[in-house]
Design goal:
By secondary structure, the chain is an alpha+beta fold. The protein contains eleven helices and 18 strands. The strands form five sheets. An eight-stranded mixed β-sheet has the order 4-5-3-13-14-15-12-16, sandwiched between helices. Strands 8-9-10 form a three-stranded antiparallel β-sheet, with no helix packed on it. It has a three-stranded mixed β-sheet with strand order 11-18-17. Strand 14 and strand 15 form a beta hairpin.
């Protein structure tokens, strides 16, 4: 998010003096680098759908526009689909969201339980009311997307400073800059909080309480003994279990759970897969009852505990402080549209895509947005 905002700002105002403060410029703990890279149009809130539609539009020209000195940068986009299994109690909401997606021009369809079983023969779909399927959804390499924004921002004049923000400086209800762990102080009338899972701590230095908490998610790569003959889409069960093909002969598997640890903990456990995820996976796909565990990792979601949606815009009680926080696992796919939107707000340009519904006023008003398709 920080690199996307920087890139879009410098596209609009090339003479800006702009710094990106990175806690860790290796990005070893960055959610972008640790993401599974999912991109989909299957949301129930209009603005989230519109964001995804723009992302696919942006990605179509990414390789040509985001390289440096004529080079092309490939984010490895694979449009292999997203399948959401639906239980009977969730059918009406799923069909309503599907209709909105179609109205907005998305490729998405309803599959009955029998149709799902025919199209995805490995799956045990009995007991589900059906599924929604976005055949043009997919996944990409998050690190490459990050590097594209970062390198372009630097080439346009952004300075990257490796440090932590220890204090957002303020005076007369406006920001005046930031203080860094290096002892340096940056003076600016505009500060953008893009700190991801660390966002609440940064905001707190200005006396602002954000409902954003770092929540651990674990991901695993396994190799089934009985390999699928075709690549599988990102398949999402109502329980939160998801899996998709990873390359030609492996699976990527994960699950968001209520017991997931809150805090900056990147430890992962093989037992989580073998004892919790594998039995559920094998029940849905019996062919996966025999597989070889390969590796795993953990990353952090910046979970907005109010409603799971982004918090975008200027904080109403502190002029010049802009928030780009709380994406709850959807930040990577929303970075192109959000970066452009924040640049428009900061420079006073009329937004191409109105994302004011995500404004931070709703945090103060305790007014959550309803998005039924957040997973």
């Amino acid at each position: 998010m920080g690199c996307s905002v920087a890139y879009h700002l410098l596209r609009q105002e090339e003479h800006l003096r702009l710094a990106v403060v990175e806690k860790d410029s290796t990005y070893r703990q960055a959610s972008s680098a640790l993401s599974v890279g999912n991109v989909r149009v299957q949301f129930s809130l209009r603005q989230n759908i519109e964001i995804s539609l723009y992302t696919f539009e942006f990605l179509a020209r990414f390789a040509a526009e985001m390289g440096i000195d004529g080079s092309r940068l490939d984010v490895g986009l694979r449009r292999e689909g997203n399948l959401f299994l639906v239980e009977e109690e969730g059918r009406a909401a799923a069909e309503e969201a599907l209709e909105l997606q179609r109205t907005l021009g998305c490729e998405a369809e309803w599959l009955s339980s029998d149709e799902s079983a025919k199209r995805f023969a490995l799956y045990r779909t009995s007991g589900f009311a059906g599924a929604t399927f976005g055949p043009r959804d997919g996944h990409l390499d998050g690190y490459s997307l990050l590097m594209g924004f970062r390198n372009q921002a630097i080439s346009r004049g952004a300075e990257v400073i490796e440090a932590e923000v220890t204090q957002i400086s303020t005076a007369s209800m406006a920001v005046t800059g930031v203080e860094l762990s290096t002892g340096a102080r940056l003076v600016s009338p505009v500060v953008v909080n893009c700190a991801g899972a660390w966002a609440a701590g940064v905001a707190e230095t200005a006396g602002i309480g954000l409902p954003v908490q770092p929540t651990q998610r674990q991901v695993f790569v396994v190799e089934p003994e009985d390999k699928p003959t075709t690549r599988l889409p990102m398949t999402n069960l109502p329980s939160g279990l998801y899996f998709r093909s990873e390359g030609d002969d492996r699976l990527l598997v994960g699950k968001s759970m209520d017991r997931d640890r809150v805090g900056f903990d990147l430890r992962w456990e093989e037992s989580r897969f073998t004892e919790v995820l594998w039995p559920e996976l094998a029940e849905f796909v019996p062919a996966f009852d025999r597989l070889r565990f390969e590796r795993g990792w953990a990353g952090l979601y910046a979970v907005n505990t109010l409603d799971g949606n982004a918090i975008l815009g200027e904080w109403p009680e502190l002029k010049g402080l802009y928030l780009v926080n709380g994406f709850s696992g959807h930040g990577l796919q929303q970075a192109p549209a959000v970066g452009r939107y924040l640049a428009e707000l900061i420079t006073g340009q009329p937004p191409v895509l109105d994302l004011s519904v995500f404004g931070p006023e709703r945090i103060l008003d305790n007014r959550p947005l309803e998005e039924r398709a957040l997973v």
